[in-house]
Amino acid sequence: FRPDVGVWYLSSRATTGPGPMLMSYRERLCKAGFGPYKGLNVPSSGFVAILMLLPLCDRVTVYGFGVEGMANRKTDDAFGYHYYKGVGMRHVGDDVHCFDCEEKALQQMGAEGVIDFCTYDPDDTMNSWSCGCRHEDVEECRPPPRPAWLRDTDDCDPGYDDCEELKAQRMARARERERARTMGERLRPAARAVPSARGHRSERG
């Protein structure tokens, strides 16, 4: 139980509602000479959440797009599809989503001031960390300097790439429990019916 975390249940209308808008914008992009784009027109959960938050929040800041440049410059990490780690985390998304279309739509919304659309810009390092900053003094958002003892090859996110190994270990333990249970059933003597002292049948091992 997390009292600091609120959970909202979205109806199917809320999750499918952005689909027609996304499809319409995709058609406009194609007619303007952009594309073709991979994937279908099912909006991702992140895209749905952004549109849901717009009427609820004074300001919405979007992160997570445009990390390709970071992957070219960092050697100690992998940028997966999911931001979280553990069971259910995947490195790639589903083809039912058109992430390029969503990025173009969000990029345009950022250009029009509807949202703050923050991406990594190798030519503007300040914007890469200051975008979305809520402090009056943007320096309050500056990340601490990289420690001198930290090497490029150090694993800054231990466990990120170990999930498959952990799942394999859990499966091995589960198989061992199942094997022990099966062997126990085979060794257990079969119950047989014997007459009791009162003439009724009882079960004995």
From TrEMBL:
Database matches in Gene3D superfamilies: Glycosyl transferase family 29 (3.90.1480.20)
Single annotated GO MF: sialyltransferase activity
UniProt topology in membrane: Single-pass type II membrane protein
Keywords attached to this entry: Glycoprotein, Glycosyltransferase, Golgi apparatus, Membrane, Signal-anchor, Transferase, Transmembrane, Transmembrane helix
Record's subcellular location: Golgi apparatus membrane
InterPro entries assigned: Glyco_trans_29 (IPR001675), GT29-like_sf (IPR038578)
UniProt GO cellular component terms: Golgi membrane
Compositional bias segments (type: Basic and acidic residues): 174-188
Span list, region Disordered: 174-205
Family: Belongs to the glycosyltransferase 29 family.
The name this protein goes by in its record: Uncharacterized protein
Organism per entry: Tetraselmis chuii
